[in-house]
Design brief:
Helix content is 45%, strand content 30%. With 181 residues, the protein is of the alpha+beta class. The longest helix has 28 residues, at 21-48. The protein starts with 20 loop residues before the first helix and ends with a strand.
């Protein structure tokens, strides 16, 4: 097809073809996707090399272990005393573990004679201090303990504990334990 100007002469070919709109849209979308990938790639790289990520992971791990330790140390069934005391030992290290091992027979006798069962749940917990290099953390834990004496109504007790957690080869364990007033 030949284009004619106002004078009736054929127009000079421009050599430029119009690009269809869908191709333009795809090109813009591809450019935006490349920019987004670059942006998020840089952000991921910065996060992966940031120490705060490692610190946050350690905090979450110690908090999880402290919550479970608080439950383990406050739950004991008089029908399964030995299993409960085993949990006490598995949740502790250092002087707390030594105390549990030293007094294990007395604890077992007391629980068997008292004919009580305790079941704990953590209401709240927070890491107050964390030294990742030293492997020590201080965690504050709120615990509700349901005490069920045999043949009597259960009683709920509330405790606030400060747990010093020490990192071991098997995770974070309680190395000191004290009530918070």
């Amino acid at each position: 097809m030949t284009v004619v100007t106002e004078r009736g002469e054929p127009a000079a070919p421009t050599g430029v073809r119009a690009t269809p709109i869908p191709v333009r849209v795809l090109a813009v979308l591809a450019a935006l996707a490349a920019l987004a990938a670059l942006f998020f790639g840089v952000r991921w790289g910065l996060a992966a090399t940031n120490d705060s990520f490692e610190l946050a992971q350690a905090r979450d791990t110690v908090l999880l272990d402290a919550r479970q330790a608080a439950i383990n140390l406050n739950t004991l069934d008089n029908a399964h005393v030995e299993a409960g005391l085993d949990l006490w030992e598995q949740s502790s290290t250092g002087t707390v573990l030594e105390e549990f091992r030293t007094n294990r027979e007395q604890y077992a006798k007391f629980v068997a004679e008292s004919r009580r069962t305790t079941a704990a749940s953590v209401t709240d917990a927070a890491v107050a201090e964390l030294d990742v290099r030293a492997g020590i953390a201080r965690v504050l834990v709120g615990v509700d303990v349901q005490v069920r004496p045999e043949g009597a109504e259960p009683v709920l007790t509330r405790q606030r504990l400060q747990l010093e957690m020490t990192r071991t080869d098997r995770g974070w364990k309680v190395s000191r334990l004290s009530p918070v007033r």
